[in-house]
Structures are given as structure tokens and as C-alpha cells.
């Protein structure tokens, strides 16, 4: 019986950690998009560092989706 409770407790901890990681990534993406929108609205150019950050975010999303697809197979 204690094995079941321990297993469920670990599962809940992992879910909590996954959600926290998801929330942090989403917050970062939101901030990057807000910065892009702000710059475009003010007529500023999007510099190379911000473009590189956008590429990194998109590459990470693509890699994560590929990993998820591989796990499901």
C-alpha cells in the first residue's frame, strides 16, 4: 500500500516540476514576443541578439516536439 502512495507522490512531484518548467518557458516566450511587438510599434529595428533569441526559442520548441513524438512512438 505504501508503494502506491510513494509512487503517486513521486508522480505528483514530477508533474509539478514539469508544470513549473512549462510556465517558465512560456513566460520567457511571452517576454520575447512583447519585446518584439514593442520595438515594431516604436519603429525600431530588431537587433541580431533578439533575432538569435527568437531562433533559439523556436529551435527548442522544434526539438521538444520531436522528442515528444519519439516518446509517443
Task: Give the arrangement of secondary structure elements.
Layout: H1 2-41, H2 48-72
How does this model look, in words?
- This protein has 73 residues and is mostly helical.
- The protein is elongated and about 65 Å long.
- The protein has helices at 2-41, 48-72.
- The model has no long low-confidence stretch (mean pLDDT 82).
- The two termini are 32 Å apart.
Q: Quick one: overall form?
A: elongated
Low-confidence stretches: none
Beta-strand proportion: under 5%
Instruction: Write down how many β-strands occur, each being a DSSP E stretch of 2 or more residues.
Output: 0
**What would you report as the Rg, rounded to the nearest angstrom?**
18 Å
Largest sheet descriptor = none
* End-to-end C-alpha gap: 32 Å
Query: What structural category do the secondary elements indicate?
Result: mainly alpha
**H/E element order:** HH
Average pLDDT number: 82
Helix content: over 70%
- The number of helices is 2
Structural features:
elongated, 89% helix, 73 residues, mainly alpha
Brief summary of the model shown:
This protein is mainly alpha-helical and 73 residues long.
Amino acid at each position: 500500500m505504501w508503494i502506491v502512495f510513494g509512487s503517486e507522490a513521486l508522480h505528483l512531484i514530477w508533474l509539478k516540476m514539469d508544470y513549473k518548467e512549462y510556465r517558465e518557458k512560456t513566460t520567457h516566450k511571452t517576454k520575447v514576443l512583447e519585446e518584439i511587438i514593442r520595438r515594431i510599434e516604436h519603429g525600431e529595428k530588431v537587433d541580431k541578439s533578439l533575432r538569435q533569441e527568437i531562433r533559439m526559442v523556436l529551435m527548442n520548441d522544434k526539438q521538444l516536439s520531436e522528442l515528444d513524438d519519439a516518446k509517443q512512438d
